[in-house]
Amino acid sequence: MSMRICILETDILRPQLIEQYHGYGRMFRQLFARQSITAQFDVFNVVEGCYPEADQAYDAYLITGSKADSFGTDGWILTLREYLLSRYQNGDRLIGICFGHQLLALMLGGKTERAAQGWGIGVNRYQLLEQPEWMSPALESLDMLVFHQDQVTELPDNATLLASSAFCPNAAYSIGEQVLCFQAHPEFVDDYQLALLNLRREFLGEARYQQAISSMSQAHQGVVVAEWLLRFAGQPRAQNCLAA
User: What are the helix (H) ranges across 34-119?
Assistant: First the structure.
């Protein structure tokens, strides 16, 4: 029996991008379809107030990226925080990407804020500090596509830092066998990143834009991270997997 993963979609794409890319839920489905580990995926757009029925059970809940602030006070963000806290307290596995990475850190006692370093865009390289068994295949370093202006500046007390860079010190973390988060976007493809950069070119400034474009000549490893996410979600469950 394959895993069941709930994708909580936390954004509605810009009008110029919807026709081609649809949404982050679809991007993740396309990413995971390239894996040998099989899983079933249900997508719920929480911005629109869509959530699973109470009797639906999943092996993991994945929270996507968003143009919204994780520390925002929009009604849908507050509702999502309450929902995720109940899932965490229930012992469910949670996977956070970008906005999800920040929201879970904030919700579980860490700190998220505008990064003094400015926008992270293009391909960024991270040092891997820990590589648990589920991080297979192993890598010497990690290159990933990013697009963010906020960062996790303090991890929750019980978190383990997995990946870091000078620009983004808290780039990935886990909490026991229950929470796994990455600031970068494994689901992004070059065409989507380029479309985002072109839409925001004037805002970002020409120098920063050109730096990001240049960085994209470097291969990135979102497909490897996708395998890690599925291996993490598929770990045998302990008697009590609720993180202390």
Answer: 75-89, 99-107
Q: Catalytic residue among 9, 148, 181, 185, which?
A: 185
Q: Where do runs of H (alpha helix) occur along the chain? A: 15-21, 24-32, 75-89, 99-107, 190-199, 201-204, 206-215, 222-233
Query: Which residue, 139, 140, 167, 135, is CA-closest to 152?
Result: 167
Question: Could you confirm whether 148 is annotated as catalytic?
Answer: no
Say which CATH topology domain 3-233 has.
Answer: Rossmann fold (3.40.50)
State the residue for tokens 């919700």. 107
Q: 17-40: buried (b, 16+ CB within 10 Å) or exposed (e) per residue?
A: eeeebebbbbbbbebbeeeeeebe
State the catalytic residue, choosing from 6, 98, 168, 181.
Answer: 98
Q: Is 241 among the residues known to form the active site?
A: no
The domain limits of the chain are: 3-233
Q: What is the pLDDT along the chain (244 residues), one digit of tens a residue?
A: 689 999 999 999 888 888 888 999 999 999 999 899 989 999 999 999 999 998 899 999 999 999 999 999 999 999 999 999 999 999 999 999 999 999 999 999 999 999 988 888 999 999 999 999 999 999 999 999 999 999 999 999 999 999 999 999 999 999 999 999 999 999 999 999 999 999 989 988 899 899 999 999 999 999 999 999 999 999 887 644 444 4
Q: The tokens of 175 are what?
A: 């909490």
Catalytically annotated residue among 6, 101, 148, 187 = 187
